[in-house]
Amino acid sequence: MEFKSEPLNKLKELFHRQRCWMIDPLCLEMDYAPISIRRFLNQLGYFTSFTHNSRYYTLTSTPKFNKKGLWFYSDIGFSKYGNLKRTIIDFVNKSPQGLSANELAALLQHPCHTVLKQLYKEKKIDRIKPAVEFVYFSSAPSRYKNQYMRLQATSENARVPQRLLPQVAIHVFAEAIKHPGASYKELSKLAAKKQLIASVKSISLLFDEHGIKKN
């Protein structure tokens, strides 16, 4: 009769030999069905990868997570937060001024566009489009506000003002017509109420390019 500790010890040996495994190779090595392998993994404790569709497993004792809570074995990524969705939510919530899909992809070494769209539809995160790409924020109103204000401040302090997107420029012009006496700063605040980022410098550039003088 096989002792219960024997398959667990063998599984530990396999992970000592190779840090990450998929289920099918483990089944071949152990000569057990997938349901049994998953039961053994539950007993030992494990993480699944946030890359490769969560197909890779490693024991909880293996990863040496960095300050961001990530650990990579070759191109296989593991997160202390769990799967890709939970990792993205945590990264977005903790970011000072939100994160774009490209910024997240660089941090996670993994494309995020599709999952970001899903999370936005599920209202797990929020987003705005201040320039050429979306910036993703926390869905918590107070955290969203803080992130938005920081992003706006960064845009204000940029040495080279960004040209406004056409839809943002149209909104700024519309507000300037409604409020002919409004300053650039006031127009920027009016845009912010519509969750559009238009810095004072960018509005000034817009008006200069169209030959519009404003006091």
Question: Which regions are unreliable across 5 or more consecutive residues at pLDDT < 50?
Answer: none
CA-to-CA gap between the ends?
91 Å
CATH architecture group name of the largest domain: Orthogonal Bundle
* Total count of helical runs of at least 4 residues: 10
Name of the CATH first level of the largest domain: Mainly Alpha
Output the CATH topology of the largest domain.
Answer: Arc Repressor Mutant, subunit A
Number of domains: 3
Could you explain how this protein is built, in words?
This protein has 215 residues and is mainly alpha-helical. The protein folds into three domains: 5-59, Arc Repressor Mutant, subunit A (Orthogonal Bundle); 83-152, Arc Repressor Mutant, subunit A (Orthogonal Bundle), CATH 1.10.10.10; 158-209. The protein is built from ten helices and seven strands. The strands form three sheets. The chain has a three-stranded antiparallel sheet with strand order 5-7-6, with helices on both faces. A two-stranded antiparallel sheet has the order 1-2. Helix 1 (5-17) packs across helix 3 (34-44), helix 8 (166-178) crosses helix 9 and helix 9 crosses helix 10 (200-209). The mean pLDDT is 87.
TL;DR of this structure?
With 215 residues, the chain is mainly alpha-helical.
Secondary structure elements and their pairing?
Elements: H1 5-17, H2 23-30, H3 34-44, E1 46-48, E2 57-59, E3 70-73, E4 76-79, H4 84-94, E5 99-100, H5 101-108, H6 113-121, E6 125-128, E7 135-138, H7 141-157, H8 166-178, H9 184-193, H10 200-209
Antiparallel strand pairs: 1-2, 3-4, 5-7, 6-7
Helix pairs in contact: 1-3, 8-9, 9-10
